[in-house]
Design goal:
This protein has nine helices and 16 strands. The protein is an alpha+beta fold. It has two domains: about 130 residues, Aminotransferase class 4, branched-chain amino acid transferase, N-terminal domain (D-amino Acid Aminotransferase, Chain A, domain 1, 2-Layer Sandwich); about 200 residues, D-amino Acid Aminotransferase, Chain A, domain 2. Strands 7, 8, 9, 10, 11, 12, 13, 14 and 15 form a nine-stranded mixed beta sheet that branches. Helices cover about 30% and strands about 25% of the residues.
Length: about 350
């Protein structure tokens, strides 16, 4: 397999040092607001750039309010999109030279506070853009299913995308079972919040009293679309008030579901009602949408959302597993709606690379 490549740009200037993978770069950097996105369709466009910039600006504002020491010289009212544009253009220009035909470009933008008092017209922010290669499936394909486990408590200041989380989540990554692709956070072991890298959605039967397992199985196996009705299902994801990141893809999923007449509720999926779940999926700026095939929950009395994260306890704990439909019809339908909208809203790469 061909080796990966990486580019790091600081303040519009490409650096010669290898920054390491994006997660390692974030852990090693001064903490700040960040966002991650990627190119689409053979690096021809940049995925939901305007929305990522809006969320980056919001994260910067939230962090400055909560922890002013992070940005001691931040100038009020800065245009984040204009601020990062030179570094984006340079990182894309370098990346296009390095990428292979089958690769997309993964971009992570970090805004951290300047340690020195700068000129009066400066932003008070240091801009870094980390770029690397990313292997994505074709637009019409959907990623293989993920296996998830409920393991840790929710994040503090979850509404801001804060790079310090890259270090905090590593504790959970170090102790997760080897067969697990993503960790789901919960503060009580019942209300499920989000993943460490993703937002989490559940598709459930709307009325379990009138829609039994036999009917559901017939609908899943039948080619007769009259047996399958989107109105029989609802989509759940934790509300922002519960302490989850306002993910760019999370918001897009909610939008397209509402427009398509799919009932979507911002209500934390409850493990106590997991037998009514039929499908689940994860979203973020890189994966876009990934089905979930199974969810594991500690079954031995160990409560990782309230206790210390001792690797030995995780090694010895027993798990109960709940299997879901492998990319069921609702998930596939939402995936198509999301991809159609993503393609409409993504920005041509030439917008950033032509000087």
């Amino acid at each position: 397999m061909a080796e990966g490549w990486r580019v790091l740009v600081h303040g519009g200037v490409a650096l010669t040092t290898d920054p390491g993978p994006a997660a390692a770069f974030l852990r090693a950097s001064t903490p700040g607001a960040y966002t991650t996105t990627r190119t689409l369709d053979g690096a021809s466009s940049l995925l939901l750039w305007e929305r990522h910039m809006a969320r980056l600006s919001e994260s910067l504002s939230l962090l400055h309010q909560a922890s002013p020491h992070l940005y001691p010289h931040l100038r009020e009212g800065i245009d984040v999109k204009k601020l990062v544009l030179p570094s984006i253009a340079e990182s894309l220009a370098k990346s296009i030279e390095l990428r292979r035909a089958e690769e997309e470009i993964n971009l992570t933008v970090l805004l951290c506070g300047s340690e020195k008092e700068q000129a009066q017209d400066s932003s008070g922010c240091e801009v870094y853009v980390h770029a690397s290669n990313y292997r994505a499936v074709n637009r019409d394909e959907i990623l293989p299913g993920a296996r998830v486990a409920v393991m840790g408590p929710g994040r503090e200041l979850a509404r801001a995308k804060y790079s310090l989380w890259a270090s905090t989540r590593q504790v959970l990554e170090n102790v997760k079972p080897s067969n697990i692709n993503e960790i789901i956070l919960s503060n009580d072991g019942d209300s499920l919040l989000e993943g460490t890298l993703t937002n989490f959605f559940v598709v459930k039967v709307r009325d379990s009293k009138t829609w039994n397992e036999e009917n559901h199985q017939k609908a899943a196996e039948s080619d007769d679309h009259s047996r399958f009705q989107l109105t029989d299902y609802e989509v759940l994801t934790a509300p922002l008030s519960a302490g989850v990141l306002p993910g760019v893809m999370r918001n897009l999923v909610i939008e397209v579901c509402i427009e398509a007449g799919i009932l979507v509720r911002e209500s934390s999926p409850s493990w106590s009602s997991h037998l009514t779940w039929r499908e689940a999926f994860l979203t973020n700026g890189l994966r876009i949408l990934q089905p979930v095939t199974s969810i594991q929950m500690p079954a031995s009395g160990f409560k990782p959302w309230t206790q210390g994260l001792d690797p030995k306890l995780f090694t010895e704990t027993e798990w109960q597993s709940f299997n879901l439909e492998v990319c069921g019809r609702v998930t596939r339908h939402i995936h198509k709606l999301v991809m159609d909208r993503v393609c409409q809203l993504s920005i041509p790469l030439k917008t950033f690379t032509y000087k």
